[in-house]
Design goal:
3 helices, 137 residues, 4-stranded mixed beta sheet, 8 strands
Length: 137
């Protein structure tokens, strides 16, 4: 089989602040920005990688989710325990400096992990955990 990752979904709590973070701080390009019923789905992705996207979506639009589940999702998002994504960069120090300069919510500074990678942790405006690893050279 030949399978690739096309897109993944991360919830947002405020479309505009999420868009600003992914576009202006991380440097992703906007691929789609779709509104429906007062909500927005924004597709972003790394420049030069048109086959890989992240869809920033309104979690309240998920079919079949009860009001209690919506409250639990909102609480988990606020704590950074609902969703996570892992990125890689050839220059972790420069990437971290840019995140700090943008006042990103830093969870962990660049650290050599016991499992063999150097990475850092930040949360996006919705609380989603982002780990960024240094790419092996």
């Amino acid at each position: 089989m030949d399978i690739t990752i096309h897109s993944t979904f991360l919830p947002h709590s405020d479309a505009e602040t999420s868009l600003t973070f992914y576009r202006d701080v991380l440097g992703f390009e906007v691929r789609k920005d779709v509104g429906y019923g007062g909500m927005r789905w924004i597709t972003v992705g790394p420049k030069g990688q048109p086959g890989t996207s992240i869809v920033l979506y309104p979690p309240q639009a998920t079919p079949g989710v009860t009001d209690d589940e919506k409250r639990t999702i909102a609480e988990m998002m606020a704590k950074g325990t609902f969703a996570m994504i892992l990125f890689a960069t050839p220059d972790l120090a420069a990437t971290f400096d840019k995140l700090q300069a943008a006042d990103a919510d830093i969870v962990q500074e660049p650290t050599d992990q016991p499992y063999g990678v150097r990475d850092c942790g930040v949360r996006d405006p919705a609380g989603n955990m982002i780990r960024i690893q240094q790419q092996a050279r």
